[in-house]
Amino acid sequence: LPHIHWLGTLVLPLLLYFSTSGALLFGFAKPVPVDFGNLRHPKRDMVWVALAGPAANLLQAILWMVAIYLLSGFDVEERFFTDMAKAGVLTNLVMFAFNLFPLPPLDGGRIVVGLLPMRLAMGFSQIERYGFFIVMGLVLMGVINSFWMRPIMMATTEGIQWVLQPLASLLQLAP
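Request: output the structure for the sequence above.
Response:
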């Protein structure tokens, strides 16, 4: 609940969905509250905190892909379940790739700040106040989709398929 932003999590996605007939869907949430006092090395440990969200999305994408393999392996032809599993993979791959974009306030930007030397990190973190607008501009121009999202999502999909190859072989699925 502390992550939910009434406008960005509820109103904006619904407004965009209905006004564009589902062609454009975007939203945002408040940053996850982090008590820096609980971190022993705040700059370094923030990298781990920032990686938690994308890691959760990657894990969920893997689990949804396992579901697809199992449905196929056991010849389940119920379209609802296969479509739901495919949507689960796609949604989590989108969130994984988007949140790793290396610009604050996204997780990727926080990772970059945590990895840079202190002086560069301080300068780079100043972008955050404009980060939302920069990200939105790059999204609207198609830069993030073409040069970041697609390559990351394709590479991640191939990586997941590679990791799950033993399961596919066990279920005798074609690649």
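The radius of gyration is 19 Å.
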